[in-house]
Amino acid sequence: MKSGPSPTGRMSLIARHGLPLLVGLVLRGAFFIWNAHEVSGCRLEGRWAAWDADQWEYIGTAESYLAGNGWQPDHRMPGYGVIFLLYRQVFNYRDACDAITITHLLVSVLAVYAFCRALASAAVMPRLFWPAYVLSLLAVYSALSDNVLVNESFTTSALMLHWAAYVRYRTRGGTGWLLTAGALIGLATFLRPIYGPILVIVPLAELLRRERPLTRRLLHAALFCLPFLVVDGIWTWRNHRHYGGFHPVTNHGSWNPRYSKSPLYAGTELLSTWGGHAYWWEPSSDSRWIGFEANVGLGTGKPVPGVPEPPAYAYTSGYTKDSLIHFANGIRRARALQPGPERDSISLGLIDMAHAWRAEHAREHPFQYHVLARLRLLKNQSVSSGSEVLYKRPVGALSTPELAYKLLQSAFYWWAMAVGSMVALYALLNARRFPLMAVLGAMALYALVACPWIMRAAEIRYNIPVFHLLFALGIWGGALVLGHYRARATR
After folding, report:
1. Cα(395)–Cα(409) distance, integer angstroms
2. Fewer C-beta neighbours within 10 Å, C or N terminus of the chain?
3. What are the domain boundaries of the chain?
């Protein structure tokens, strides 16, 4: 009869796993409570859960289902809505909102812990765990989403746990970990379909393991994909029954039907043609020039003070500055109206104009359209302080410690974006030497460019799921450089 672990063994397990998790809960838990207090001047859906303008697309589906109105709005993959529905089987609305955000917190701590353990293992640097773990807990760019009722927090954790599970499989063996890694990237896809292409990275890494027989490589690549294929097969069958056709991801294209006939969508589609900044909450956003200034409906097509006019490369032979002024006036007219048929009619006409402009721009300025515009969108998404949403108060109202904390978070952000991106490229170029870090580098670089490059969309929040991937790569890069100079000093 086997005996259980000895008291010494139990204490060792507690020291190895319990202590770091406790540290994580204390640090991230304190930030979670502080963040709830910081946003309490806005709107809370519970004690800890912050309201978000997009939450109706995520938790509204569960509320619609419980009210007997079916799964509406039915245009996203159901990852977050299904999770929230499970909580609603037990709690009322406000308590369910709190429960899911507390789960965000708990899962994110577990994800950071497992991810940093995997980083130390993949890098073959056992001492890297604690520095990487503490720094990752203190860097709160992604943790800001733990209080919010949208899918960024779970998506971030799923990506991190996916790589951690794959590292565990590669270093310890066990097909269960391979299946777990596949299930987690499947979950990330059901939360954010834009990350679906990451599914091909691990199968490719498995196929490149030339020391293994080809049949085994093919089998393991297929096993990794199996969890997603099974669940997505059920989802596709359900969509076929409801809507007909083949819909393995979303049912209504890339954007929800309400947004897809709005003046905001029209403006975004036009500005993304040449890589303009589309989001009006930025004071210098190009969207302010085309009708999204504060005095909605009162403009006359004149430029907004402080906002540069669109550059010369925005225009084509058929679409000139006069065309843009006409478009801007249309945006203002539509925004001045209440939602309804007249507003929709104006917006749809503007969307047709934006798409015609886009097609002509692609013909006349192909390099601008296909390459430079996407690079500008990537800049719009990534070039920021990294701490602009940390406080709800203006910088001038912050105390000296608060300002120092804000600057620290900006430093963490830029370490991830600048250093982490370069180290990701280094890992890919040295994939044979660092195969697991190359997998992480491929994940991070894809996640960084996916929205601006594929969707031609750029918001700073799109960097939330990629932040920890790049930050860990930056830490690993710093450890490599430090190790190199230490080795030279001891020669």
Report:
1. 14
2. N
3. 9-250+399-489, 259-381
Say how many Å lie between the first and final Cα of the chain, rounded.
Answer: 54
Mean pLDDT of 395-417: 94
Residues 6+ positions from 253 with CB-CB distance below 8 Å: 75, 260
Asked if 439 and 205 count as a contact pair (C-beta separation under 8 A), the reply is: yes
The pTM of the full predicted model, rounded to 2 decimals, is: 0.93
Residues β-bridged to residue 44? 50
Secondary structure (H, E, C), the chain: CCCCCCHHHHHHHHHHHHHHHHHHHHHHHHHHHHHHHHCCCCCECCCCCECCCCHHHCCHHHHHHHCCCCCCCCCCCCHHHHHHHHHHCCCCHHHHHHHHHHHHHHHHHHHHHHHHHHHHHHCCCHHHHHHHHHHHHHCCCCHHHHHECCCHHHHHHHHHHHHHHHHHHHHHCCHHHHHHHHHHHHHHHHHCHHHHHHHHHHHHHHHCCCCCCHHHHHHHHHHHHHHHHHHHHHHHHHHHHHHCCCCCCCCCCCCCCCHHHCHHHHHHHHHHHHCCCCCCCCCCCHHHCCCCCCCCCCCCCCCCCCCCCCCHHHCCCCCCHHHHHHHHHHHHHHHHCCCCHHHHHHHHHHHHHHHHHHHHHHHHCHHHHHHHHHHHHHHHHHCCCCCCCCCCCCHHHCCHHHHHHHHHHHHHHHHHHHHHHHHHHHHHHCCCCCHHHHHHHHHHHHHHHHHHHHHCCCCHHHHHHHHHHHHHHHHHHHHHHHHHHHHHHCC
pLDDT above 90: residue 394: no
Higher model confidence: residue 158 or residue 264?
158
